Amino acid sequence: MLGMGTEPVFFWGGLMMGAIWAVLLWLQLPGQTPRPERLSRQVGIAGLFLSGGLAWMLWAPVFGPVGAFFCLGGWGMALLCFMPVIWAVLSSSQTPHTS
Amino acid sequence: MDTSSDRGRRAAPPPPPRLRGRLFAGSVVALLCLAGACLIDRTFGVARTYGATGTSLLTLGACLLAMTGLTACIGLGRWQKIHQLAARYRNIHGWVGITTGSLLAMGFLAGTFTLFAAPLQQWSTPPLPPQDARFSAISLTEIPALIGQLPATASTHYRLTLTSPSTARISIPTEPEIPLGVPSPSIIISQPAPHTLHFYRLTPSPVPNFIGGLHRRLGLPLPERWVMPFVGTLCLFYGLALLSGVILLLPGIWRSLMTVRLQGHARRLWLDLHSLLGLCTLPFQLVIALTTALFAFFPLLSVFFGAPASMKPAAGMMAMEQYPTALLSPAAALLQLRNLSPSFHPLTLEYVSGPHGGDNLAERISLQAPLYNANGSCSLPMSEQPYLLAVGTDPFNALIGRDRGSVLMDPQTGTILDSQNLPGQQSPARHFLTWCLALHFGSFGGEFVHWLYAALGLCGVGFFHTANKLWLNTHRLKITGQARPADTPATLWLGRLSEGSLLGCLLGLCSIIALSPLMSHLHSVNKDMMNGTGMPSSSMPAMTQSCQQVRLTYYGCLAFSMVAYCLLSRRLCRSMMTGLSAAALSTAVIVVTLRHSATQDTSSLILTAVFSIAALCLWRGAFRNACTRA
């Protein structure tokens, strides 16, 4: 795959850091999100900036600086769409009501 | 049966007269913004000075202003609390959603397939016979000598598709390529032994191009030039719905933004999903709305723009009475490109050393393709000018086309004739425009972004589907004593048509994908080429006929689904449409596997896997619906 083949370590590292960034962002958003007791808000926000910065730095050599920014945004958007749905299904013992 | 006294309407009241006035004012403001762009161009000569780049950016700015102006006008007037402002947008948000949702859902679904147009074409194409497949990749150093063996008519226009850094496949286009038009057949050459050439005519499948057209027309069965003004207007209202949706979220729903309540009333679930998908993909949706408005309005506004900048002849770019015989070798051309832009990866080199069809802005506007191959006012040089067109990708930069950038060179000297579409070598204005278009096409970051855009496109389909479901649930009548709300004629028919159109679109797409491998042909034309009769006769009428068959299949499926939804129960239709879609996709996978083209390269292998998984999911959905019914 384009980009992935040339710098696979940077690509997969960035992908993992981007996923961590998206999860930390999800935890900070309002609504029915998991609230880990050991993760304080300050640490969460610090981790958010750190993982976001690291993901961007890892992806910049693969996609270019501007491309890395938009890739991170797109990856975050996609994960934020799916994570709450998966979480709702996991945390619910009943089948979804879809009439 | 039921009277107004025994039913509690939960539906929002009809739009008040004030809203109509505001909507009218907003439309006038939007129109003025677009007219203002023409006026600015006339006054300051943007088109004359900056060409298509300047006018595109001007149109983009006008579309952004029109969208925000239209939204702002709806909220005009005094308000003290945010919920008072939100109340003004509630009705218009719902009405715009239900009237445009189905079309946009079809556009997004077709757009998701369009992301894989090139792999789909490759997947549909039958492979060369094994005895020739090994010899179709020819060393770059041998190509000039091999071209000398070709008939005179064939050696003036040929294309090299790079298969490795040192080898390429030679093909000869039999018809001029028209941007976004019917794909043209080509002759593929293999060299099984020195001085022995085998020729095959490859007829490509029209399906990927048809899906592209479907995406641009939002699935409407009308010529693009008629649909485009409607698409542009629809996109402005789509932008209004997005911005008003954010305002609606402000008062209270923000608190439960990341909540998806699976238990309880269905309306709450649809609202949760709609809010979640809408807000999480808001930047993507706004970019799509804005750039689609640009694509739709640019051809219309360019009629009113001043004369565009003419393509200035570069050094050595002039009409030639005698066409060159000694051309730059492919290896030398690649070396020159590497020096010019190290991150640019050429995919094809197209040598044109004889008279050819040129194009101009007016021609491309008539094809609704002013920007896809944009090179100022002309994407190709004048018909007497020989050229070498290098097309390729760049992992570090955005690409102006759907999946590639290009550079135009002199085929004799390698002098650069035009590099404004070469990624990384553009002016700041062109670079900005390229990024705007790349954010629509997903033409940056390689295949990773293609898959990301596919996920976001499917989220978009879900977003519009949940919008329709939410509107229908809100507008159903709650009758005292009955657990389930009753349908009004409007909710009944809109519900059936919205679901029927979406599943009909899915069935149509799966059916034409099943047709695609059957429409791509490869057959030997050794006799035609070696007998000295030259290039085989044109097969464009056959291609046009294939396009008609694809069109008929798609719209037949869509009509079948909508009629079925009008006549039969929804559960039965849902089961039937998903089952038929699964059957079509399974057939496609089986046909391609039997023709040995399912695993001919990595992208074909991935596409086969994805179609197989999609078919399994659809089969599961069909059986689940059938079992629920039973």
UniProtKB/TrEMBL annotation, chain A:
It comes from the Bacteria. The chain crosses the membrane at residues 12-31, 43-60, 66-90. Keywords: Membrane, Transmembrane, Transmembrane helix. The keyword Membrane applies. This is Uncharacterized protein. It comes from Bombella pluederhausensis.
UniProtKB/TrEMBL annotation, chain B:
It comes from the Bacteria. The chain crosses the membrane at residues 21-44, 50-74, 95-118, 226-254, 275-301, 448-467, 502-520, 552-568, 580-598, 604-623. Keywords: Membrane, Transmembrane, Transmembrane helix. The keyword Transmembrane applies. This is PepSY domain-containing protein.
